[in-house]
Specification:
125 residues; mainly alpha; 6 helices; 54% helix; 11% strand
Length: 125
């Protein structure tokens, strides 16, 4: 069994998929991502999804559904994810695949980046 993971910010994923459509490598890229055992998608909800983004994301999540693990990070509360997708029908389809059998881990406390910045500032003073 091949072990592996792929990390990508969601806005960068959509940009990469758009480029792949233009250069003809879209199908191959989707297949590669679908076969990745663990896909880590960072920054859910940072940017609005276009119609093309929504359809690409549904395709990707559907290909991975019940075959591979997908980890999504977001500062946006899960209760707002549906609205952030921007299309009720596609939102239902995407979230049905993401939420079914999901394990939700909610982190609380200060940002690690904020804590790191404060430590650096204290050292400099």
């Amino acid at each position: 069994m091949k072990l592996g993971a792929r990390y990508i910010r969601l806005p960068k994923l959509f940009q990469t998929l758009d480029i792949a459509k233009a250069d003809g490598s879209y199908t191959k890229l989707l297949e590669q991502i679908a076969k990745t055992p663990l896909l880590v998608l960072d920054d859910w909800g940072v940017a609005q999804m276009t119609d093309s983004n929504r359809r690409d994301f549904l395709e990707l999540i559907d290909d991975r559904y019940q075959h591979s693990s997908t980890l999504i990070t977001s500062q946006l509360p899960v209760s707002l994810w549906h609205d952030s997708i921007g299309d009720a029908t596609l939102g239902d389809a995407i979230l049905d695949r993401l939420i079914h059998n999901a394990h939700r881990i909610e982190l609380t406390g200060d940002s690690m980046r904020k804590n790191k910045t404060q430590k650096v500032e204290k050292k400099e003073n």
